[in-house]
Design brief:
Helix content of chain B: 25-40%
Strand order of the largest sheet of chain B: 1-3-4-5-2
Strand content of chain A: under 5%
Radius of gyration of chain B: 16 Å
Order of helices and strands of chain A: HHHH
Structural class of chain A: mainly alpha
Number of strands of chain A: 0
Largest sheet of chain A: none
Helix content of chain A: 55-70%
Structural class of chain B: alpha+beta
Oligomer: heterodimer
Radius of gyration of chain A: 11 Å
Largest interface: A-B, 12 and 8 residues
Number of helices of chain A: 4
Order of helices and strands of chain B: EHHHHHEEEE
Shape of chain A: globular
Distance between the termini of chain A: 9 Å
Distance between the termini of chain B: 16 Å
Shape of chain B: elongated
Chain lengths: 80, 138
């Protein structure tokens, strides 16, 4: 799966989770850019990503994610 | 009171309990919530709307999910994250409700479970369904 495809599916997850179809993700998007993105929503997003990409993350995988680009990096590693 | 840890719980684990709705519970909920809607508080009004009696506050019924999560599944270590509720049928004073929850997903990484919950009346009718997400404290 290409990085762009991962971005597209991740965008769907974010839009669905936050009920906001205007969300556009970039590599540098962080929780500062989406008003309701708090620690609880971070978990909801990661669990949704596990389902969409049919994988399971470890604590090490998720404890220091800084932005959307790092989330995409993580998924690329899991899909490799 | 149950005290399940995340490692104790597997998909399919089920817990349940029963409760009978009393007039006293409606009175207490009205005072607590301030919901004075006559459908819940006026017998004649409720009958005029086609019901057999006062309709129990939906959120009173749903409050049983607090007990399900906080006492039974996972119990003491529960931190409630989310409850998505569907109100399927009315509940009346005197109804005996059985509340059950089945673990639908377990995430050890995030220390949280998802629970498919339902509330069934004494006639076997599902009056309420919910998807509950609960964190579990270490």
């Amino acid at each position: 799966m290409s990085r762009n495809e991962i971005f597209d599916r991740m965008t769907e997850v974010f839009r669905d989770n936050f009920d906001d179809d205007s969300i556009v993700l970039t590599e540098s998007t962080t929780s500062d850019d989406i008003e309701d993105w708090d620690s609880l929503e971070q978990i909801n997003i990661l669990v949704a990503l596990e389902r969409v990409f049919s994988t399971k993350f470890s604590v090490n995988d998720v404890e220091n994610l800084k932005n959307v680009g790092e989330m995409v990096d993580l998924i690329e590693r899991h899909l490799a | 009171m149950n005290r399940y840890a995340i490692s104790d719980l597997k998909i399919g684990h089920t817990e349940s309990f029963s409760a009978t709705v009393s007039s006293e519970m409606l009175k207490n909920f009205r005072e607590l919530s301030g919901d004075i809607n006559p459908l819940h508080n006026d017998e004649n009004y409720a009958r005029s709307r086609g019901y057999v009696g006062r309709v129990v506050f939906g959120m009173l019924v749903a409050s049983l999910y607090s007990t399900l999560a906080g006492v039974y599944l996972p119990g003491e270590r529960c931190l409630l994250h989310e409850v998505n509720i569907k109100f399927k049928k009315p509940v009346f004073v005197g109804d005996t409700l059985t509340v059950s929850g089945t673990v639908a997903d377990v995430s050890e990484t995030f220390s949280r479970i998802e629970i498919d919950a339902r509330i069934v009346n004494q006639c076997g009718e599902t009056v309420n369904r919910a998807r509950i997400i609960a964190g579990i404290i270490d």
